[in-house]
Specification:
With 82 residues, the protein is α+β, with helices and mostly antiparallel strands. 20% of the residues lie in helices and 26% in strands. The protein has helices at residues 37-42, 61-70; strands spanning 8-11, 18-21, 26-28, 34-36, 46-48, 53-56. It starts with 7 loop residues before the first strand and ends in a 12-residue tail after the last helix. The mean pLDDT is 85. Bound molecules: zinc ion. Zinc ion is lined by residues 12, 14-15, 17, 35-36, 38-39.
Length: 82
């Protein structure tokens, strides 16, 4: 039995495909969030092959907002009796 040392299996936040983090090209937009290469390209990302980095970051605002929405947010207004 062999366990891969590098490579953590994550799911693309967009299409739910499996990504082997650290091995496959993907775009990490937050600590938890990551999207696969295909989705990154579809979202306008441009990968800089020679430098092994994203030259143009994919547009992930909606995914970030979704992530923020999933976080426990401290209510700004107390609603009495609600
Ligand atoms: Zn994807």
């Amino acid at each position: 039995m062999q366990e891969s040392e590098a490579g953590q299996l994550v799911h693309c936040a967009d299409c739910d495909d499996e990504i082997v983090s650290g091995r496959e090209r993907s775009y990490e937009y937050s600590e938890e969030g990551e999207i696969c290469f295909d989705c990154s390209i579809r979202r306008g990302g441009v990968y800089d092959e020679p430098h092994d980095r994203w030259a143009v970051a994919p547009a992930v605002r909606d995914l970030l907002e979704r992530e923020w929405a999933g976080e426990p947010v401290v209510a700004r207004h107390h609603i009495p009796g609600a």
